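User: Can you model how AFP sits in this protein?
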Amino acid sequence: MEEIFEAIKRVSIKIKDVLMYEDTDYTNHTNATGDTQLALDVRCDKLIEEEFKSLKCVQKIISEEKDEALHVNKNGRYIIGYDPLDGSSLVDVDLSVGSIFGIYEGGIEGKRLLRSVYVVFGPRVELVIAHEDVKLYRLQKDGKFGFVKSVKLNQKGKHNAPGGTQKHWRSHHKKMIDDIFKDGYRLRYSGGMVPDLHQILLKGGGLFSYPATDDVPKGKLRMVFEVFPFAFVFEKAGGGAIDGKNRILDLSPSHPHDTSPCFFGSLDEIQRVKAVYE
Ligand code: AFP
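Assistant: Here's the modeled complex, given as structure tokens:
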């Protein structure tokens, strides 16, 4: 497992340089969920593939930017589901973006997730690893990731990151979000799931939501690459992650690119969502 973390650290430094200097043009290809791919998406996906292909412990890799799984070693133990560059459409406006990794064994259901890692490419490069607890690391001058601290969520937070096209929000969701703001929560939403969730984690709590809406009735965010890895992080940090009713990590996708409505937060906010969605 340690060699997977080291591979992620190595490739994160390469991705940092790609983000700094390479162009942000769109290609004329779309990925399995119909998003037009940026050259950056394809480039970062290739860099990550090259790293993981060299690891004997990796059985197969499944990427948001690939239609099919890539089989690496038939005797490998782990399946890695990853989003090479989440929020890539924000690079051309110089906002923070990230990479997300879920390390599974024996399948890609939520319950099969053993570890999750995400990297934030912002003013600094930070990396978070979730196992028994949640640890934050930061890229240092010497090119190494130094341990910063363990991350814990408070029981209740003060930030609210409401995703989804508001005109397509369902009335009970709209009322819930309005009530949360009436209770004094601050709006913190960049359109990049990684920096938005990183902020809620490091600032003690709150709620990130990307619900089922009339235009995306199954939600937008992908279970294997985005939702399961962050659900694992939030639970290990003492918070929760649900689809409105169910615990996210109890879900099983029928296809690697399946999406799910999702709510990540500290426990008070998750309870509040459950009360509205029940
Ligand atoms: P891109 O990777 O296409 O930029 O989408 C980013 C994302 O997957 C996630 O990071 C955001 O939370 C969400 O989509 C933003 O979606 P909306 O633009 O619909 O708010």
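A couple of observations from the model: The pocket of AFP is lined by residues 35, 86-90, 163, 191-193, 220-221 (CB under 6 Å). The two ends are 38 Å apart (CA to CA).
User: Helpful, thanks.
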